[in-house]
Amino acid sequence: MNLNQNHFELFGLPEIERRASMQLATRVNEAYQILKSPLRRAVYILRLRGVDPEFETNTAMPPQFLIEQMSWRERIEEGSEDPEALVRLRGGLREESAKIYEKLRGQLDEGGDDEAASGTTRMLMFYEKLDGEIDDKLAELET
């Protein structure tokens, strides 16, 4: 017995099965990454239904939503030197995101309103980006 054998050699699997199992493992990992993220899962569901969320081409958002985004950005910038303020902002942002995710869940599951779900998904992308910006600022303060 050679203790340096890889797992395929250990079980005497031929090369073609090695390749197939590696491809399957890659696919399973990719599927897991998509399904564990509510935003990526929503995009996937929409695309399965033949709906393109048009992230690259459709940037139209309701004016009130854009005003809210500007307000969030201003508050993040104002709190950029205060970790406690950033943590509070992140908590508020995640509460707002949770409400929008609940709305999206209804659009996808109960209402079947894919067009509205597409717009809501685009909104959530903004919230995810803001959340990432807060995390980045917090990381900067830690260093």
Description of the molecule:
The chain has 143 residues and is mainly alpha-helical. It has a domain at 57-142: Up-down Bundle (Monooxygenase), CATH 1.20.1280. The chain has 6 helices and no strands. It has helices at 7-10, 15-36, 38-48, 63-78, 83-110, 114-142. Helix 2 packs across helix 3, helix 3 (38-48) runs antiparallel to helix 6 (114-142) and helix 5 (83-110) packs antiparallel against helix 6 (114-142). The model has no long low-confidence stretch (mean pLDDT 89).
Note poorly predicted spans.
none
Overall body shape = flat
Strand content of the residues, in percent? Answer: under 5%
Total DSSP E strands: 0
What's the oligomerization state?
A: single chain
